[in-house]
Amino acid sequence: MGSVKPLSPEQIGALKKFIIELTATRKVCERTRQQYEKTARRYFDRPEDALLTSSKGTYYSRKAALIFVAAHRFLTALEINDQLNALKSARVLKLFFTHTDGPTALAAGSICPIDAKPKVGKRKSLRGLPLEWREQMVAAAPSRASRDWMLLMAVAGVRPEEIAKGIAVQPIADGVQLKIQGAKIDRGHGQPERVITFHGPLALMLAESGERTIKAPSANSVSLAAGRLGRKVFGERRSNPVSAYSFRHQFASDLKASGLGGETVSAILGHAVDDTKKQYGSSKQARGLQTTRLISATRAVKVLKKSGFSPTRTAAGASPPRI
C-alpha cells in the first residue's frame, strides 16, 4: 500500500463505532468463520478481485466473508495500534458498501454491484483490441500453467469450467487435437464431450509441449488469471475489460466467418442447441487464421428455430466513514 497516512482520532472513533454496530449483528458458527477466513486469505489484499464473477450467489458469499473478516481485523488492529491493517480493513469495507453512513449504510449493504454495473454485451469486450491480442496475452503469461490456460482459450474458446475439468492435448501434424469435457450440460443443453482439431500458429504453440492433460485447480483460478493478465497487457478498460470469455467470443467470431455450417459451429462451441451460438461473437470481429475441424461431439445439435446466423466471409456496498 506504500506509505500509510495515520488515521486521525476522529476517523478512528467513527470507524470503531461503525464496526461495533456491524459486528453486533453478525454472529456465525465456527465452521462459517473458518470458511470466511479462507475466502479472506484469497481476496483481502486485492478485494477488487472478489468482484470478478457474474454470479450473484458467489458475489454475496465473498462479500459476507470479507465484511465479517474486515470488521474483526479492524478492531484487532486498533487494539494493537496497527495502522496498516486498520487501513486495509477499512479499504475492504469501503469497497463493499455504498457511500452512506451508520444504519443507512447497513441497510444498503444488500445492493449488488453486479446488477448496478451497466451490462456489457458479450461482443463488446473485443472492441479496440489489436489484431494479435490473443498472442499478446499468451506471451505475457507469468507461468507455464497460465500460459497453457491462455493457449487453450485462444485456440479453442473453451470455458474456464472446462479447463478445470481437464482437457486432453494431442499433437498432430501442423496442429493439435483436443478432447474437451463440456460444461453446462444439464437438461441436454451442452456437449458432454467433443473432439476437435486445430491448425494454426497458436495450435502449434499448444502442441509444442507434447501430449498431456491441462487442468486448473478451479474455474475461478482461470478467470482471475485472465482478468489480471488482461489488465496488465491492455490496462483497466473499465467499460470493456478483457476476460476469460473474451477468448470465447473471439473464437466464436472466427468460427462464424470460417464458412462452417451453423450446427457445426454450435457443436464446436460445446452447445447442443443451434440457436445458442448467437450469444457469442460476430463474423465482423473475426481475426483468426486458424483451421478448425469437428471430429466428434456427444450430442446432435438441435435446431429449435431458424437461426439468424449465416457466414458472411471467410477468414482464417454502504461506506464506513471516509478516510
Keywords:
323 residues; alpha+beta; hpI Integrase, Chain A; five-stranded antiparallel beta sheet; 13 helices; 9% strand
Outline the structure in words.
Helix 1 crosses helix 3, helix 3 runs antiparallel to helix 4 and helix 8 (144-156) packs parallel to helix 12 (244-256). Helices cover 46% and strands 9% of the residues. The chain has two domains: 9-116, no CATH class; 122-297, Intergrase catalytic core (hpI Integrase, Chain A). The protein starts with 8 loop residues before the first helix and ends in a 26-residue tail after the last strand. The protein has a five-stranded antiparallel sheet with strand order 4-1-2-3-5. Residues 98-110, 116-120 and 307-323 have low confidence and may be disordered. The chain has helices at residues 9-24, 30-43, 56-79, 83-95, 102-108, 113-116, 133-140, 144-156, 160-165, 201-207, 219-234, 244-256, 262-269, and strands at residues 167-172, 175-181, 193-199, 212-214, 291-297.
